[in-house]
Amino acid sequence: MLQQLLDAVTHNKATLIAVSKTKPIAAIETVYAQGQRHFGENKVQELVDKFEALPKDILWHMIGHLQKNKVKYIAPFIHCIHSIDSMDLLYEVQKQAAKNNKIISVLLQFHIAEEDTKFGLNMLEASAILDIYTSENNPFTHIHVSGVMGMATFTDNVLQIEKEFKDLQHKFTFIKQGYFPFNTNFKEISMGMSSDYQIALANGSTMIRVGSLLFGERNYN
Ligand SMILES: *Cc1c(COP(=O)(O)O)cnc(C)c1O
């Protein structure tokens, strides 16, 4: 399966993020041994434990909702935070990145699904962040806003999923043209999971986040 996913992402010049949440260290080592370096987790404690146990050239992505008071635990090593869903959270990431004397890449998470359970910004909230980020006195000196992230509705309706991914792609283009016409850092569209990564790649995804297809179904018991 790994090779099939790699063929798909390579063909689309995208990146595969192996979502290893709930999976043991040994399972990650197996995929790592096959050359995979980008891994994603959605819980801070699990992410920290796995970072400590695994090779240090792994690029860790935080893809789950992130509480402000936990940013400090991942700031020293995190490669990219996909789940920026408030201005407050971004200020905290800035604070911890500065403390660690590093720049942290982040994605703005948009609410594109029909369910209201999924976290994310709307365009008004994102614009408020971007107005400040692109202002002359930008306080976010230790942050690279690298793109957008979204999760489609959990449904079998391909047209619905396609509509939501197109919506995220439009938001990306709107922001790119309005805020970053000359900034090459802003380039990522993180969308697509096991069930919908092909639809995502066909609609401009640059990062797919695939878990169960790669590692097998998760067991939450
Ligand atoms: C769990 C998770 C994934 C991967 O889901 P699969 O269906 O197992 O591929 C992707 N993105 C986020 C935000 C997740 O929480």
Topology:
Blueprint lengths: L1 H10 L3 E5 L5 H9 L4 E4 L2 H10 L5 E4 L8 H4 L5 E5 L2 H13 L4 E7 L12 H11 L9 E8 L7 H22 L8 E3 L6 H6 L4 E4 L1 H4 L6
Parallel strand pairs: 1-2, 1-8, 2-3, 3-4, 4-5, 5-6, 6-7
The protein binds pyridoxal-5'-phosphate.
The site of pyridoxal-5'-phosphate has 14 residues, from strand 8 and helix 9.
Notes on the protein architecture:
The chain contains nine helices and eight strands. It is of the alpha/beta class. The chain has an eight-stranded parallel beta sheet with strand order 7-6-5-4-3-2-1-8. The model has no long low-confidence stretch (mean pLDDT 96). Helix 4 links the parallel strand 3 and strand 4. The chain is globular and about 45 Å long. The protein binds pyridoxal-5'-phosphate (PLP).
Task: Assign an overall shape.
Answer: globular
Number of helices: 9
- Poorly predicted regions: none
Helical coverage, percent range: 40-55%
> What oligomeric state is this?
single chain
Question: What's the helix-strand series?
Answer: HEHEHEHEHEHEHEHEH
Strand count, sense and barrel status of the largest sheet are: 8 strands, parallel
| Number of extended strands | 8
Percent strand: 15-25%
Task: Determine the N-to-C terminus distance.
Answer: 25 Å
The chain-level structural class is alpha/beta
Overall mean confidence score, pLDDT: 96
Cofactors and ligands present? pyridoxal-5'-phosphate
Evaluate the radius of gyration. 17 Å
Biggest sheet: strand arrangement: 7-6-5-4-3-2-1-8
